[in-house]
Amino acid sequence: MGTQQTLGTESVYKLLIKYSIPAIIGMMVNALYNVVDRMFIGNIPGVGPLAITGLGVTMPIVTIILAFGMLIGIGTTTNISIKLGQGKKEEAEKLIGNAMTLAILIGVIITIIGLLYVDKILILFGASEKTLVYAKSYITIIFLGTVVNLLSFSLNHSIRADGSPKISAGIMIVGCLTNIILDATFIFGFNMEIKGAALATVISQTVTAILTMAYYLSGKSNLKFSKSSLKLDKRLIIGVFAIGISPFSMQIAASLVQVISNHALKTYGGDLAIGAMATISSISMLFLMPIFGINQGAQPIIGFNYGAEKYERVKKAYLSSVAVATVILTIGSLVVQTYPEIMIRMFNKDKELMRISVEGIKIYLLMMPIIGISVTGSNFIQSIGKAKIAMILSLLRQVILLIPAILILPRFLGLKGVWLAQPIADFIATLITFIILFKEIKSYNNKVEGNIETNHLKGKCIEGEFAIEKNK
């Protein structure tokens, strides 16, 4: 328990560095799975623009798979941190096996449904006659690898809560390097084109899953794995879903937005506009993934200290994370607004696709400097176990505000309206999140004062008892 106990005693700043940097590396590596695929696919001779557009059509499906990974992974990780904070190590250990079983069951179901209805799903998600062949070639292989995808993502999260963030990041780096090497080999070496990118992704995720399970099966983990923990515990699963439902809903919402966005992009900008969005979202991911890494680094610190009622440490952990997130996103915004062509050229050199992408990215990422409050805020509320509020905050930015904006604005502004929908939703969601965060953090002042007063009274009582004993 020594490793976990440091979450309640060691300097908050040191803990954030210790947990966030490996998590940031892990998330950047995770982003590179998709980004590298898109870079290689966009540069396939002769078919690059259409191939990257086909990949853009599959984005909602990949996001749905990620949603289930987050449902299991974040739900499990948060519960492990809270259980450890409460001193319930046995329940924390049982969560590891339950996460494995959930990943396998859900993965098999997604694979079967995906393969049976692949054509219908892709057309529903915005594929045209020209892009369907590329989208189907890619996503069929991705569906076949869903189980290892979920196992690698969900269990890698829990390694951080187990007190081994460096191992977690190391496993992700090995997986990413495998993906990059295999991408180049399969796409250009074996001329497998878009199929090669999908196969490289699945193989690298398999490597990650094997290494992640080996960590627990080796017996070197702080939380010990046992076969009996594979049997699903209804009470623990409800707890996992209660916490995981917020990031799950956010990703499902993101998938829904991608579907609606794909149709709007195809209507007002043609197939290439979907390809432009795939490029823009990849660049956006490069800047947002460090923030998700900060969230993951802060999560066990916030969860443990909240469970242990150390509210000053909870407050310090969050305020530090949002400050760093804001600095990173402000720098990212300056790069995007100043040098958009340089970044987009990494994905495709087609002149028309470049023109659409440059116009789109400048508008789409306009609110990047302030969204750190929204992104870290919903994670903070989730980390303290307030799943319903966290879910609402997540849905604000992705559904409640964004979908109406995508449906309404293009009718008056055309393609520009599709790009403008995101920054408008970002601004309003950030404002609302700020108000909720301000009230939550302010309430800790009273709790801290209450704890001090209680401790003071306890001290007085002990002094009084000591005096009585002395007089006797």
Automatic annotation (TrEMBL):
Pfam families: MatE. GO terms for biological process: response to antibiotic. InterPro entries: MATE_fam, MATE_MepA-like, MATE_MepA_subfamily, MdtK-like. The chain crosses the membrane at residues 12-33, 53-74, 95-118, 138-155, 167-190, 196-216, 236-260, 272-295, 316-336, 356-377, 389-413, 419-438. It is a multi-pass membrane protein. It comes from the Bacteria. Its main location: membrane. GO terms for molecular function: antiporter activity; xenobiotic transmembrane transporter activity. Keywords: Antibiotic resistance, Cell membrane, Membrane, Transmembrane, Transmembrane helix, Transport. GO terms for cellular component: plasma membrane. PANTHER family: MULTIDRUG EXPORT PROTEIN MEPA, SPORULATION PROTEIN YKVU. Belongs to the multi antimicrobial extrusion (MATE) (TC 2.A.66.1) family. MepA subfamily. This is Multidrug export protein MepA.
